[in-house]
UniProtKB/TrEMBL annotation, chain A:
The chain crosses the membrane at residues 21-42, 68-89, 119-141, 153-174, 186-207, 227-248. This is ABC transporter permease. Coiled coil: none annotated. The keyword Membrane applies. It comes from the Bacteria. Keywords: Membrane, Transmembrane, Transmembrane helix. It holds the Pfam family ABC2_membrane_2.
UniProtKB/TrEMBL annotation, chain B:
It is found in: Cell membrane. Keywords: Cell membrane, Membrane, Transmembrane, Transmembrane helix. Residues 21-63 form the Cardiolipin synthase N-terminal domain. It comes from Sporosarcina highlanderae. InterPro entries: CLS_N. It is a multi-pass membrane protein. It holds the Pfam family PLDc_N. This is PLD nuclease N-terminal domain-containing protein. The chain crosses the membrane at residues 6-28, 40-61. The keyword Transmembrane helix applies.
Length: 260, 66
């Protein structure tokens, strides 16, 4: 792990200078606030702009605070994942294209620490943003809905974090493997299209990384499917390790493709 | 005017403040950048009129350096 701390500093400074360190948390927090507020005022919003016919009665479902956490997770599953893919698809392939990588590859650094420095910093930014977003939502849910038990929230966040780490690892390792465009396409295929497929026909199996988010939302209910839950967690963990090794290997193999 | 007062400002205000910060960050970045992906003036309008989505689109697509 030669030069890991130096590379970590380089990554941190780069993300501060291109403002990713600031805009990604702000966007996640805005979504975290909007979700409880719009759900709370939904009946009034529909009354004023919904164009409902005069005298029509509509009973709105009574949302509990827990439901808002799950619906915010639904937002992050699409918009959040898109932000992760689009913001970090060029992490490694873009460096190869712009020639920054050439300046790095001539120095005595190991590709392990090169890949891990990116992995640690990107995960830090994204996990920090997701947690900040859920904490902002939690604050509003306590005001507008009912208080949610802290134990449930942390169990939910811990489980969901594993899925987020999986998403970041997919994007980074594909970025080491392919050019930026291919990274974007394949990451969206793996993280969003397969997630939809899993939710449509996923009733036939209980163990898959795409089910981790569903298992996370089950933390709020008393239904627990222990065996499927722990198997999915284990499988996701193994896949993360495999993808990291694959990414390091591909970063090394594609080093010659860098622009000089 | 009474409708204006009915809006729960204490709930909405944090969203507005955060959007303004995001917009300010996007504009600072746009002004400091020498080259953008597309005309400079177009991005100013997108950031100022596009609210949350405008700033996000600028951060993702406006800063391709060639």
């Amino acid at each position: 792990m030669k030069g890991l701390s130096v590379l970590l500093q380089k990554e941190w400074r780069e993300n501060a200078r291109n403002f990713k360190l600031y805009w990604i948390p702000i966007v996640f927090v805005i979504f975290g606030i909007i979700e409880p507020v719009t759900n709370h005022f939904l009946p009034e919003i529909m009354k004023s702009v919904g164009n409902l016919p005069e005298g029509s009665e509509f009973t709105w479902p009574q949302f509990r605070g827990e439901d808002i956490f799950v619906s915010l997770m639904g937002q992050y599953q699409l918009i959040g994942i898109l932000i992760i893919v689009l913001a970090f698809m060029g992490s490694i392939s873009g460096e190869r294209k712009s020639g920054t990588a050439t300046l790095l590859y001539v120095r005595p650094m190991s590709f392990g620490s090169y890949f891990l420095s990116k992995w640690i910093v990107v995960n830090g930014i994204i996990l920090g943003s997701v947690w900040l977003g859920f904490f902002a939502a939690w604050y509003y849910i306590n005001i507008l809905f009912n208080p949610v038990a802290a134990g449930d929230v942390f169990a939910f966040l811990a489980t969901y974090s594993l899925w987020i780490i999986f998403a970041v690892t997919v994007v980074l390792s594909f970025s080491a493997w392919m050019p930026t465009g291919g990274t974007a396409g394949l990451s969206i295929l793996v993280l969003i299209v397969l997630q939809v497929i899993d939710s449509v026909i996923g009733a036939f199996w209980t163990v898959s990384p795409w089910k981790v988010a569903t298992y996370a939302s089950m933390m709020f209910s008393s239904i627990t499917n222990q065996s499927g839950f722990w198997m999915s967690i284990g499988l996701t963990f193994v896949l993360i390790v495999v993808l990291i090794l694959f990414g390091i290997n591909m970063a090394k193999r594609n080093a010659a493709k860098t622009t000089v | 005017m009474s409708e204006f007062a009915n809006i729960p400002w204490n709930l909405i205000l944090p969203i507005l403040v955060l959007q303004l910060i995001l917009m300010a960050v996007a504009l600072t970045d746009l002004i400091r950048r020498k080259q953008t992906n597309g005309p400079f003036i177009m991005w100013i309008f997108i950031i100022l009129l596009g609210n949350l989505i405008g700033s996000i689109i600028y951060f993702i697509f406006g800063r391709r350096h060639e």
